[in-house]
Amino acid sequence: MAFDTLGLSEKVLAAVEAAGYKEPTAIQEGAIPQVLERRDVLGIAQTGTGKTASFTLPMLTLLEKGRARARMPRTLILEPTRELAAQVQENFEKYGTNHKLNVALLIGGVSFSEQDKKLDRGTDVLIATPGRLLDHFERGKLLLQGVEILVIDEADRMLDMGFIPDIERICKLIPFTRQTLFFSATMPPEIQRLTEAFLQNPARIEVAPTSSTAENVTQKLKGCISKDFEKRAALRELLEGAEDLNNAIVFCNRKRDVTTLFRSLERHEYNVGALHGDMDQRTRMMMLDNFRKGNIKLLVASDVAARGLDIPEVSHVFNYDVPSNAEDYVHRIGRTGRAGRSGAAFTLVTAEDQKYLSAIETLIKMDIEWIGEPIDFEAAALERKAKRKGGGRATAKSSGSSNDNEAEKPKPASRRRSQPKPQPATTSASDNNSEKVEETPVPQNVSNMPRHTSNKKAKTDKSEPAFSPGVHIPAFLLREPRPKKAS
Ligand code: AMP
Q1: What is the value of pTM for the model shown?
Q2: What CATH number has the domain bearing residue 12?
Q3: Fewest CB atoms within 10 Å of the CB: 8, 184, 223, 399?
């Protein structure tokens, strides 16, 4: 099927052609004509399916008629994270290149005043995270009666992040006569209930169930008997052994582990950055931008980075932790092997992770291959217990990590890079995997020192800082790596 059969305007078709798209994806083919007919849409599709264009392209076409009034946005798109919101904005810029539309982004971590100015000017497309949108609304700076199209994107992620009450509130603030486009990768009961309450006779379009992992992604498991030192050593071993590693995302379940692992990899001189929900907005954007441009080769991330982010050509995904939610595994490894390219996903597994692993294998309907022999975790635990009883210290290790403690020793001060001043993070006493869990300071820098192995070197140029111009970059981020002393 060709794009020009879907009913999109000439301006939009020209932008699609400029983007180089030959034909619509399944979700685009299903959703675009329905949106143009002003029907509500329930799109069950995960990221990577072309979902964003399935709503931005017809919205642009519909927005060609009419104009925006001050503080009364014509359309509203709700996104769970700031990164996703910024990405949707980029999509509007890309596909709306032939339009003169005002697009505003309302996300946390940036000042209200700039956002107020944009709202005052009149907005055709408002892209927001739920909390910041409600903040503006409560300050009386925003009127929602003019919203003609409401998009709720990544609804299941909203659920994970505790945003459903906010979404319900926002839906009630917008006229019932609006058109609602609702996207979710999965349909848990809470999401089903939401669609029943807020969608009117929607066209349901479902593509590629989340239980499928791409065939072109090699998946492997590596067992670790103990946590911490051994896991970090095992990860380094995988990094060193990985074939054709161009860039990788390393996923952790908790934000505090993102911080710890980031620091450990940095100490080991990897070219590494970190990304999670408590970092300030500018740092997150810079981090992502540098990862996209190849200035950072490894990105340690929490699940905030797993969904929706369009980072082309990630060659490898490493799960430092087995995700406790099986669908997150599918989302995480969906970062690699995109658009038909081959990819690789490695997962570290400890005894505590076994139940999560079996849930994943049930979901994806396959057994993932182990590197070497699978560890008999029960036998290892018994052995450790026996050793402890015998007065010895618990020293069980898996193969290949005998010098873990040595490997984790910090380098002498002369070889350490200066650490950034940590930024205080919000605290939570709970111990689940949600983005709200964080107890430790957050890394604010990226390591710009390349790993010594030549194929992993960052392409940084002395004359060209690795960051976008116009952004204030702290001096320590721009410092050149120190030359190594000959030993
Ligand atoms: P999304 O699922 O919206 O995150 O899109 C995933 C990627 O697919 C993005 O890089 C888009 O630029 C790209 N894309 C969207 N639609 C098409 C299309 N019809 N043909 C080729 N690539 C597309």
Answers
A1: 0.60
A2: 3.40.50.300
A3: 399
Using the atom order of ligand 1, give the atom closest to the CA of residue 48.
Answer: 2
Ligand 1 atom 21: the closest Cα is on which residue?
A: 21
Q: Are residues 194 and 235 located together in one domain of the fold?
A: no
For residues 163 and 280, membership in a common domain is answered with: no
35 and 170 in a single domain? The answer is yes
Same domain, residue pair 183 and 230: no
- Complete DSSP assignment for 90-121: HHHHHHTTTS---EEEE-TTS-HHHHHHHHHH
51 CB within 6 A, ligand 1: yes
Q: What is the 8-class DSSP label of residue 484? A: P
The domain of 95 spans 3-206
The last residue of one of the domains, among 206, 226, 247, is: 206
Asked if 118 and 173 sit in the same domain, the reply is yes
Mention every residue, 6+ apart, whose C-beta is less than 8 A from residue 288. 83, 275, 305, 309, 311
**Residue at which a domain ends, from 186, 206, 226:** 206
Shared domain for 179 and 273, answered yes or no, is no
For the CA of 46, the closest atom of ligand 1 is 2
Ligand 1: distance of its center to the CA of 48 in Å? 6
**Amino acid symbol at 168:** E
pLDDT digits (tens, 9 = 90+) for 229-277: 789 999 999 999 998 899 999 999 988 899 999 999 999 999 999 988 7
Across the chain, how many H-helices and E-strands are there?
17, 14
pLDDT in tens, 27-46: 999 999 999 999 999 999 87
Residue owning the nearest CA to atom 22 of ligand 1 = 21
- Is residue 396 in some structural domain? no
Same domain, 234 and 375: yes
* Residue 50 Cβ contacting ligand 1 at under 6 Å: yes
What is the 314 CA–ligand 1 centroid distance (Å)? 15
d(CA 246, CA 243): 9
